[in-house]
Amino acid sequence: MSTTRDLTEAPAQTHEQTITCRGERFRLYLDSDRIQKRIAEIGRQISNEYEGKTPILISVLNGAFMFTADLMRTIDIDCEVDFIKLSSYGDEKVSSGQVHELKSVDANLEGRDVIVIEDIVDTGLSMQFMMNRLADYNPKSVRVASLLHKPASTEPDLTLDYVGFEIPDLFVIGYGLDYGQIARNLPDIYILDEK
Ligand SMILES: O=P(O)(O)OC[C@H]1O[C@H](OP(=O)(O)OP(=O)(O)O)[C@H](O)[C@@H]1O
Ligand code: HPA
C-alpha cells in the first residue's frame, strides 16, 4: 500500500508523512499539536498585552480563516473580528506580484486597536498592501499576527508582532493554505519535498 496519499483523488485529513497535491510531493512539516500549542502561546500573549482594550482582529481571507478561528478561541479578553479578502497567487506557487482586494473591511476601524491576522507572510506584498489600506482607516494601533513567515522571501520592511513559525522559502499547504484552492482542510502543514 502506498503511504503517499494523492489529495486530488482522496481527501487527506490526518498526519500522513507525505502527500501529493496537484502532482507534487509534500512532506509533513508542522503537525496540528505543534500548531495549536503555538497558537495558544500567541493567544495568551495577545490577551496579556491588550488587557483592558477590545482589539479587532482583521482576518485576511481566504487563507487565514482557520488560524483566525483557532487564535480567537485562545484569547480570553473581549475582542471583535472582521474580514478582508485579498488575492495574489491564483492557482500558482508564486505570487502574481499584484494584490487584488476582493472584499473590503466592513467595520469602522477609526480609533481602534487592530490586529491583522494572516496565515503566511511570504513575499510580504499582501501585508504591505494591508498596511497601506489600513492607513486609510485611521486606526489607533496596528499589529500583525502571522502563523508563518518566510523571512528569506520577504522584501518590504515589515514589523510582524506575533509570528508562529519562521519557515524556509518553500511552498507550504494545509491549515488554511492552498495549492490551486485545495488542501486548505488539512489540519497539519506540509512543505514541498524537493527530493
Ligand atoms: O506575502 P505574500 O507573498 O503576499 O503571500 C501571502 C498571501 O498569500 C496568500 O493569499 P492568496 O493571495 O494566495 O489568497 P488566499 O488567501 O485566498 O489563498 C496568503 O493567504 C497571504 O494572504
Ligand atoms: O507557501 C505558500 N503556500 C500557500 N499559499 C501561499 N501564499 C503565499 N505563500 C504561500
TrEMBL record:
GO terms assigned for molecular function = guanine phosphoribosyltransferase activity; hypoxanthine phosphoribosyltransferase activity; magnesium ion binding; nucleotide binding
EC numbers for this chain: 2.4.2.8
Q: Determine if Chaperone is one of this entry's keywords.
A: no
Gene Ontology CC terms, in alphabetical order: cytosol
Q: Which reaction does it catalyse?
A: IMP + diphosphate = hypoxanthine + 5-phospho-alpha-D-ribose 1-diphosphate; GMP + diphosphate = guanine + 5-phospho-alpha-D-ribose 1-diphosphate
Q: Which Pfam families match?
A: Pribosyltran
- Could you tell me the keywords of this UniProt record? Cytoplasm, Glycosyltransferase, Magnesium, Metal-binding, Nucleotide-binding, Purine salvage, Transferase
What does the record give as cofactor? Mg(2+)
What InterPro entries does the entry give? HGPRT (IPR050408), Hxn_phspho_trans (IPR005904), PRTase-like (IPR029057), PRTase_dom (IPR000836)
Predominant location of this chain?
A: cytoplasm
Q: The Phosphoribosyltransferase domain covers which part of the protein?
A: 30-179
Q: In which pathway does it act?
A: Purine metabolism; IMP biosynthesis via salvage pathway; IMP from hypoxanthine: step 1/1
**Keyword Metal-binding on entry:** yes
- Give the GO terms filed under biological process for this record: GMP salvage; guanine salvage; hypoxanthine metabolic process; IMP salvage; purine ribonucleoside salvage
Q: What broad class of enzyme is this?
A: transferase
Name where it's found.
Cytoplasm
- Would you identify the family this protein belongs to, as annotated? Belongs to the purine/pyrimidine phosphoribosyltransferase family.
Q: Could you tell me what this protein is called?
A: Hypoxanthine phosphoribosyltransferase
* Encoding gene per record: hpt
